[in-house]
Design a protein that fits this description.
about 100 residues; mainly alpha; elongated
Length: about 100
């Protein structure tokens, strides 16, 4: 995230939206199954609903943050998020690294 922050060259008035964006992107711990959800399909459905809710929160934060960016900053963000973009490659390298935890 620091790399993205540096590439965007954020202005002081953009820092609040940046902070909210970063917080929304943090991984969340899965909630334990609800009482009475003993079947595998019920547990999987709950996990799916949690993941969808997280993705919606991330999308909402991204839209708000993106709305605060200048046209030049939006180009940087768009290039990093395109298929095969730098941000995607960086995440794959970290995930496959034996030191990634």
């Amino acid at each position: 995230m620091q790399m993205l922050h540096d590439k965007l060259k954020l202005q002081p008035q953009q820092e609040s939206a940046w902070h909210d964006f970063v917080e929304a992107m943090k991984p969340r711990k899965p909630m334990p199954p609800k009482e009475g959800q003993d079947s595998a399909p019920e547990r999987m459905e709950q996990m799916m609903q949690q993941q969808q809710a997280e993705m919606q929160q991330r999308l909402d934060a991204l839209k708000i943050f993106y709305g605060q960016l200048t046209p030049e900053q939006r180009k940087v963000m768009d290039n990093l998020h395109r298929p095969g973009g730098e941000w995607q490659h960086r995440g794959k390298r970290e995930a496959s690294s034996p030191h990634h935890g």
